[in-house]
Structure formats: structure tokens, C-alpha cells
Please model this.
Amino acid sequence: MTKKFANLRAQMSPESLARAETKAQAMLEEMPLNELRQARGLSQKMLAEVLHVQQPSIAKIEKRTDMYISTLRSHIEAMGGQLEVVARFPDGAVKISNFEDIGNNAAA
Amino acid sequence: MTKKFANLRAQMSPESLARAETKAQAMLEEMPLNELRQARGLSQKMLAEVLHVQQPSIAKIEKRTDMYISTLRSHIEAMGGQLEVVARFPDGAVKISNFEDIGNNAAA
Model:
């Protein structure tokens, strides 16, 4: 199967390939925080330990539909990830850099 | 120049092209909210009118290094964009879906 797929790709025009790549990038998987944690193989208890909070705090954060960006950043960094805040427009996307320096200490 | 660039691309292997596309996607331009507003050709006054707030509120938001995700979403939607919250890991990225339903009314 792998070989067949490679052959298929080799037959695609550079333009088609580029389009496919862009589409793949645009179609990031989407999930809530609790599913992401499970996908990373982490328990609420493990995350609570990293963040030096009690387990119910993690449960509470995972249920929230709004929070401070710094809180979210700490939460994602505790899972070993990095938060990216992106503004997407019909003609392109931009990373918002206002929040780069926050949250790093909270997760330490 | 355009033609030369197209020729160059046509000579690239599908693998090189795919790598280049992925890299371009990963290297999103990065800027703070005030620069993004200017890049969209908007004034603080215009944004204030869309959000039904006073101009100093916009100035204040643009200076903040932390805020509620709902506030940021309204702000970006007022510029005609969409907020994306992404957790990036060494092995991939995931869009966080907890915040999808917030902020839409605030910007209306």
C-alpha cells in the first residue's frame, strides 16, 4: 500500500501536490482539551501534578468554554505542547504574538 | 520573474515541493494585534465602531499580553478574521475546540 501511494504521488503534478499539502495543513484535527489529554496518554492526575494543582482544577478547566490565554498556555505546555494563537482570514493567516511571553512560569 | 519561479518549481521533485509547502505553512507571519489591524487597513476607530466600544478600549486591548479567549475572538472577528487556537506538539498539531461557540455574540 505504501508503495502504491508513493507511485500515486509521483504521478501528481507539482501543483496538485502543493494543493494537497496545503489542504492537509488546513485540515488539522480538532478536539476538546480532555480528548487531547487522553490522546497524549495523560491522566488528569498527571496533569495536576505537573501544574501543582489539585485534580478537580484540571477537570474544571477541561469543561470551560472560555479562559485566560495564560491559563490555556500553561495547560497545553503541561501536556508538552505549545500554544499557537492564529487569526485566519480568507487571504491568509497570521500568528498573534501578543501572548508569547505569558504562561511560561505558571507551567514551570 | 513569475515565469522563472514557475520553471524552478516545475524542476523540483514532488518531495521537495511538499517539504517547501509544509515549511511555508509552518512559517506563518507573526505580529501583534495592532500591526495586524494596520495590515488589514483598519483604524482603532473603525474597530471600536464594529465592536460598539470606545476607541480607548481598542487601544487597551492591543497593549494587553493576556486576555480572555472570548475577548480575543471578538476582536479578531471584528477585523473579519477567525480565531484558531492550536496546540502544537513535536509530532503534530491539534485545534482546540472548547472555545468554538464563544465570542460570536460579543462581536455582533
Strands of chain B lie at 29-31, 82-89, 92-96. The longest strand of chain B covers residues 82-89.
